[in-house]
UniProtKB/TrEMBL annotation:
<feature type="transmembrane region" description="Helical">
    <location>
        <begin position="112"/>
        <end position="138"/>
    </location>
</feature>
<protein>
    <submittedName>
        <fullName>Major facilitator superfamily domain-containing protein</fullName>
    </submittedName>
</protein>
<feature type="transmembrane region" description="Helical">
    <location>
        <begin position="150"/>
        <end position="173"/>
    </location>
</feature>
<feature type="transmembrane region" description="Helical">
    <location>
        <begin position="50"/>
        <end position="70"/>
    </location>
</feature>
<dbReference type="GO" id="GO:0000329">
    <property type="term" value="C:fungal-type vacuole membrane"/>
</dbReference>
<feature type="transmembrane region" description="Helical">
    <location>
        <begin position="179"/>
        <end position="199"/>
    </location>
</feature>
<keyword id="KW-0472">Membrane</keyword>
<keyword id="KW-0812">Transmembrane</keyword>
<dbReference type="InterPro" id="IPR036259">
    <property type="entry name" value="MFS_trans_sf"/>
</dbReference>
<feature type="transmembrane region" description="Helical">
    <location>
        <begin position="386"/>
        <end position="406"/>
    </location>
</feature>
<dbReference type="InterPro" id="IPR011701">
    <property type="entry name" value="MFS"/>
</dbReference>
<feature type="transmembrane region" description="Helical">
    <location>
        <begin position="509"/>
        <end position="528"/>
    </location>
</feature>
<feature type="transmembrane region" description="Helical">
    <location>
        <begin position="412"/>
        <end position="435"/>
    </location>
</feature>
<dbReference type="GO" id="GO:0022857">
    <property type="term" value="F:transmembrane transporter activity"/>
</dbReference>
<feature type="transmembrane region" description="Helical">
    <location>
        <begin position="82"/>
        <end position="100"/>
    </location>
</feature>
<dbReference type="Pfam" id="PF07690">
    <property type="entry name" value="MFS_1"/>
</dbReference>
<feature type="transmembrane region" description="Helical">
    <location>
        <begin position="307"/>
        <end position="325"/>
    </location>
</feature>
Amino acid sequence: MEAQPPALLSAPRMLTLVGSILVSLSSGTNYIYSAYAPQLGARLFLSHTQLNVIGLAGNVGVYLSGPAWGRVVDTRGPRIPLISASACLLIGYLGIRGIYDNGAGTAISFMHLVILIACTFITGLAGNAGLAVAVNTTAKSFPETSRGTITGLVLSGFGLSAFFFATVASIAFPGDTSALLLVLGLGAAMPMLLGLVIVRQIPLPPPSTTLGIEGGLHGREGYHPIPSGDAALFIHENDSHTSLLDPTELVYEAPNYHVPESSTAVELVSDRIVSRGSSAKRSASRARPVHDGPNVYGKQLWLTPDFYLIFVIMSLLSGTGLMYINNVGSISQALYAKGNPNYDELEALRWQAAQVSTLSVCNFAGRILTGLIADLIRIRLRLPRAYCLCIVSTLFVVSQLSAISINDVAHLWKATALLGLAYGGLFGIAPTIIIDWFGLTHLSENWGYVSLSPLVGGNIFSLLFGRNLDSHASDDDTGTHSSLPLVRRGGLPSERQCFDGRDCYVSSLYVTATACLIALGLSVWAGMRDQRKTTEAKREVVWDAED
C-alpha cells in the first residue's frame, strides 16, 4: 500500500515553505545595490552612468538567466541551482569587496570595471537560481486555492532581502561598506546550502471530491495528484444510455490520476465519462487525454498574444521600479545636498539607508498583500487574478507622480514606500498569473521567459536616469555651489555630485510616469480579456447525454 502524502499543514510542507522563504530572502540581494552604490562610486571615481551599468549587470544576470534556470528546475530539480547560487554569491560579492578595498583614492582601470560588472552579473545569476527553486517548489506543494497567498509569501522574502542584510550590516558594522559586502557574500550563500536539505516538493494530499455541474469537485470521491510532466488523464468515450446525472452509475476509467480542480475551466462532456453498464463498448472506445488546466510552453508560448501582453506590462512597470531602486540612493543625496551648506556625509548616508530600508520593507509587504488580494478576487469575487495588475499599475503611477512633487529628502520616503509596494505587488502577482494563463507544469521555464521583460524597460530607464544625472552633475564643476568644499571634505568626488535637488532627475520621472500610465491601460485590457476568456470557457461546460 502506497504511503499517503502529508497533510496540508504538516511539518514537511511547512518546513519546505520556511526553507523556500529563506532561499528567496537570500536571492534578492540585488535590491541592496543602491545602499552601497554611491560609496562605490565615490571610492572608485565612477560616474552615475557607470554605476547604473554596474547595477544593470545584476539585473541582467537575474532576468536573462530566467529561461535557463527555469528549465533546469523544471527538469532536474533544485539541487544544481542551489549549489550554483551559493557559489555565485560568494564569488560575486567577495570580488566586488576586493575591488572596493583596493581602490581607495584612485580611479579603477577599465579591466577592473569589467570585473566589477561581471561580479555583479553573477550575483544576479544566483538570485534567479534561488528564486526559481523557491517559487517552483512551493507552487507545486500547495493547492491552487492558496497559490496566490503562498507564492506571495515566498516572494516577499525576495523583497525583504535588502532590508534584512542592510540591517544586519548596520548593526554589526555601522558605516562599513566593505563589511556590508562581506555580509552579503557569506550571509546569502549559506541559506542556499541549507535549502539543499529542506527545500523539496511535497505531494498534495488527495482531497475529497465528486463531480459537480460546473466542473467543480465536491463530496467524498477521492483522487490522486497528477504525475509531474505531461501526464494526462485518459478516459474512454461513453456509448451508454445511462442518465448522465445519475451519480450512482458513474465511474472513472482512470481513478489513479488527478481530476482538475474546481478553479480550472474544463469541458465536461459525456464522452469523458463511462457508466458501469458499458464495459463491452468501453473496450473498443478511443482514449482521449485531458490535461490539468492550460499547458502552454516553448514555441507555443511565443505565439500566444497573452505572452506579449504580460511582457509589455512588466517591461514598463518593472523597468520603472528598477530605475528607482538602483538610483534611490543618488536621489536622496541630490535632495539632501541642495542648498545645504552643512553637508554631512554620515547624515547623507543615513538618509540613503532609510530609503533602502523603506523600499525593502514595502517591497516585502506588497508581495504578501497582492497574493492575498489575488486569492480574494479569485475565490470570493470570482474574477480573474489579472485584475490585480490594475491595482499594481495604479500604485506605480502614484509613486512616480509623488516622486516628481517631492523637493525635500525628509518626504522622499512617501514615494519610496509607494514604489516598493507597487514593485513588490507586481512580482507577487505575476507568477500566479503565469500559472493561470499558461499552466503549472512548465512554470519556471515560462516565468523565465516573461522575466526577460525587465531587461528592456530597466536598461532604457536606468541609463536614461544615469545620463540625466551626469549632465546635471557636470554643471557643478564651476564650483558655484557653496556646499562644494564641504562635499570634498566629506570624501565625495564633487564632480560626481549633483546639487540641483529635484531638477537632477525629474525629467526621467516624467518618462516613467508616462510609461506607467500606458501599463495601466494595458492592465485594464488584460483583466477584461481574461474575464472574457473565463466566461467563454464556462459556456463550454456541456453535459451531453444520449436518451
